Amino acid sequence: MAMIQLQNPDFVIKNWYTALLSILLVTIATVFNTGALKSSHWAETVFVSLHIACFFIVLITIAVTSPKNDAKEVFLTFTDNGGNYPLVRTPGAVF
Predict the structure, then answer these.
(1) Are 49 and 43 in contact (CB under 8 A)?
(2) How far is the C-alpha of 36 from the C-alpha of 53, rounded, in Å?
């Protein structure tokens, strides 16, 4: 629905659109799981292959496009942006 709205800004998502889409997806999954049990091995193979391929695509994309730092900065530099380090315990405080 959001992709449709991105392409057509005048499109307004109504609650029944989402409900109808959910019912459609559940119906398709139910029919597939109950009616296609004998031939579901090929679908499992396809989905596992796609899952592994997409994992490596995302991993490689992140590795190539991410900013690079030297190992000393990565493993030896500590930055506490939350202000919680070092933890100072006050007498009588409950942690």
Answers:
(1) no
(2) 25
